[in-house]
Design goal:
With about 425 residues, this protein is of the alpha+beta class. About 30% of the residues lie in helices and about 30% in strands. Strands 10, 11, 14, 15, 16, 17, 19, 22 and 23 form a nine-stranded antiparallel beta sheet that branches. A five-stranded parallel beta sheet has the order 3-2-1-4-5, sandwiched between helices.
Length: about 425
């Protein structure tokens, strides 16, 4: 089978790496890919948001399955365009992708179907005064402000004072995140432990895939601004078998059933960001309509079975008849190495050396996320640049291997958090 993977990040590298191991896969094409993916696939220089060019590429290649990695082309309707020319797609339609494309839509959907989440209200650009008044309905800070649209994982702000929240309301409704924040969601701050849960869906059926935890803040100790994710690990202790069953029964299944009822059947991977505490159980922080990044890297590293049959069933139907995917017992950890300046404007162009040495450490694979080639050199070309991923029989061993690999990489201009998986490790202490 020929597979077309859309995207250029670490998530797409991890998908290509895992599918390359499938005995059913004969060729992988990536658009646009990156230097790491190029070692596994044929890369075509077509941007992930260039819908017309991607449709033309698909017409030319006629892949047996297209896997759309990032959320933007999904929200833009790439899956719909490909299905219209009879190409199977792993990924939701534009109408279904609204679960991530609009925070307001997703909150209203959860309210309609009694899916547990935080109390909230929506506000438009002309309602700054009403938004500030709504802050008075909470017991106090912190507050949660969310840009309605896509903002590259940076559209959530958590002010620690009322004055900061009021200033942020003005900034966001005034265009801080461009068109994404012309509409705003304000919700109560949920206490508890965050986790990421992934389920595969074919529009009718949903089956659990895996749980993970990521680290969104840029600095050690969960300090600094939010990012797209600075590291992840799987399994997540808080998502034990009992909790996963609750998430499926109380959140995932009602979501898939509700989307079907609303004429928006959901196909692909459903990524539910959760807040879990003893009082409320699992509640939805947000939906994502694609694999998490860097959660995808640790999930793919732990998969024992070939995922291709399930991915294809999500695209074409019949997921209920597929065997459940088995996972290795090993733990997996991924550490993000980012360019100086991230999550602001990162510095690009610095040379990264010794990647091969890092990859020789047992259990380690270095996924490229924001790299480019310049002559024979690999250079930094983004914010989150590398995902140093390791597996091992214990979590501590996986963490040790990952940081050993990080330290083997010669990239003075890069940085990372040094406490990935701290929450799970503290449980074991």
């Amino acid at each position: 089978m020929k597979i077309l993977i859309v995207g250029s990040g670490g998530r797409e590298h991890a998908l290509a790496w895992r599918l390359k191991q499938s005995p059913r896969v004969t060729e992988i094409v990536a658009a646009p890919g990156n230097p790491g993916i190029a070692a596994l696939a044929r890369c075509e220089n077509v941007a992930a948001e260039n819908i017309e060019a991607l449709v033309s590429l698909a017409r030319l290649e006629r892949p047996h399955l297209v896997i759309i990695g990032p959320e933007v082309p999904l929200v833009m309707g790439l899956a719909d365009r490909l299905r219209a020319i009879d190409i199977p797609v792993f990924g939701p339609s534009a109408r279904a992708a609204m679960l991530e494309g609009s925070k307001g839509f997703s909150k209203d959907f959860m309210a309609k179907y009694s899916i547990p989440t935080a109390r909230y209200r929506r506000f438009e650009a002309h309602q700054a005064a009403e938004a500030k008044a709504y802050l008075e309905t909470f017991d106090g800070p912190p507050y949660v402000l969310k840009a309605d649209g896509l903002a590259a994982g940076k559209g959530v702000v958590i002010p620690e004072t009322k004055a900061e929240a009021e200033a942020e309301i003005d900034a966001m409704l005034g265009g801080k995140f461009g068109a994404a924040s012309t509409s705003l969601v304000i919700e109560e701050f949920m206490h508890g432990e965050e986790a990421s849960f992934f389920a595969l869906c074919d529009g009718e059926t949903a089956v659990p895939l895996a749980g993970a935890q990521d680290h969104k803040r840029v600095g050690d100790g969960d300090t600094g601004p939010n990012t797209g994710g600075m590291g992840a690990y799987s399994p997540a202790p808080i998502l034990d078998a009992a909790m996963q069953k609750r998430v499926m029964n109380e959140i995932v299944t009602p979501t898939v059933n509700g989307m079907k009822k609303d004429g928006r059947p959901y196909r692909g991977v459903l990524f539910v960001g959760l807040m879990i505490d003893q009082k409320h159980g699992p509640r939805v922080v947000e939906y994502n309509v694609r694999f998490g990044d860097p959660e995808c890297q640790v999930i793919m590293a732990r998969l024992k079975d070939d995922p291709l049959p399930q991915l294809l069933a999500c695209a074409t139907g019949g997921l209920a008849g597929c065997a459940r995917l088995e996972r290795f017992d090993d733990h997996a950890v991924s550490v993000v190495m980012a360019g100086a300046g991230y999550p602001g404007e990162p510095k690009k162009g610095s040379v990264i050396r010794n990647l091969e040495d890092a990859g020789k450490i047992p259990g380690v694979i270095v996924f490229h996320a924001g790299t480019a080639k310049k002559g024979d050199d690999i250079i930094a070309n983004g914010g989150r640049v590398l995902n140093v991923t390791a597996t091992a029989p214990t979590l501590q061993q996986a963490v040790t291997r990952a940081y050993e690999a990080v330290d083997a990489i010669d990239w003075p201009e890069g940085f990372c958090r040094r406490d990935i998986a701290w929450r799970a490790l503290s449980r074991e202490a």
